[in-house]
Amino acid sequence: MRANRSGGTLHPVAAFSLTGAGVALMLGAGATVGPLLGRAGLDAGDVLRAQIALGSALLLLPTLLAILALRGSSWRTVLSLGRLPPRGVALSVLLGGALWVGSIGLMELQAIPWPPSPEYLEAFRAIHRALAPVGPLDALVSVTVIALLPALAEELVVRGVLLPSLVRPLGPILAVVASSVLFALMHDPYRYLFTLAVGLVLGALRLRTGSLWPPITAHATLNTLTFLVAPLVDDPSQTTYEPQPLLGLAFLLAGAASALPLLKALRRFVDGSRGPA
């Protein structure tokens, strides 16, 4: 397998095939591994962590094997995994926080015409009950498996390989849209709008900075905040979700207003960091 000469990207067909194979493996693991681990006597939290960790690894596996097999091309170049200085890390973390704020608003507004069902709410609460940490080490393991590993795997596959392969045939805007649609389809249907919006921002970030580390860092921050904060603000006694439109609009505007200058700052910072170095 060879990379295209333009920017070290894979051919779009190869990139789509690798992504599709990874998604199929991930979904297959989720459907088969969970019941097996449950019968092995593991508690619900350990089963969930094992499912997510294995699913993330399998999503990445086809792409990783293909990248490592490339002849005449460095996998670091293909994935754009150059060094990200500390200030770039800080800006990316802040962007992940802005995305988290905006996502709260978007989900609140979505709940006006399409509130989550009681079954969806209970499934969400059951997951967080199962993953509730019993100590600092357990919390660190959960954050690593639930937040960091999926962010790393999804960014390497979607924004690391797939998105750059689509830029030449589709142009940057359509490439970001197409990769974001696929990214959204990898998640549950109720979160489609949320994950589509996040995918658009992370795709733009990947192309604007020319590096994969900013979207990885922002995505991991978003996941971590969601995992840590969501159970704290949920009301278990609420069986029917009651959206708060004004609060949702305020959060959405605050998130967008924070994200835009951070995107600009990251572009200038990452571009500028390449000069003297």
Q: Would you spell out the secondary-structure blueprint of this structure?
A:
Blueprint: H1 12-39, H2 44-68, H3 75-79, H4 86-110, H5 118-131, H6 136-170, H7 172-185, H8 192-209, H9 213-233, H10 245-273
Structure description:
The chain is mostly helical and 277 residues long. It has a domain at 85-273. The protein contains ten helices and no strands. The protein has helices at residues 12-39, 44-68, 75-79, 86-110, 118-131, 136-170, 172-185, 192-209, 213-233, 245-273. Helix 2 packs across helix 5, helix 4 (86-110) packs antiparallel against helix 8 and helix 6 (136-170) crosses helix 9 (213-233). The radius of gyration is 19 Å and the shape is globular. It starts with 11 loop residues before the first helix and ends with a helix.
Shape: globular
Q: Beta-strand level of the residues, as a percent range? A: under 5%
Query: In angstroms, what is the radius of gyration?
Result: 19 Å
Structural class: mainly alpha
Number of strands: 0
Q: Tell me which oligomeric state these chains represent.
A: single chain
- Percent helix, as a range, is over 70%
Distance between the termini: 32 Å
Order of helices and strands: HHHHHHHHHH
What is the count of DSSP helices, taking H or I runs of 4+ residues?
10
Average of the residue pLDDT scores:
87
Biggest β-sheet description: none
Provide the low-confidence segments as ranges.
1-7
What keyword list fits this structure?
277 residues, mainly alpha, 10 helices, 77% helix, disordered N terminus
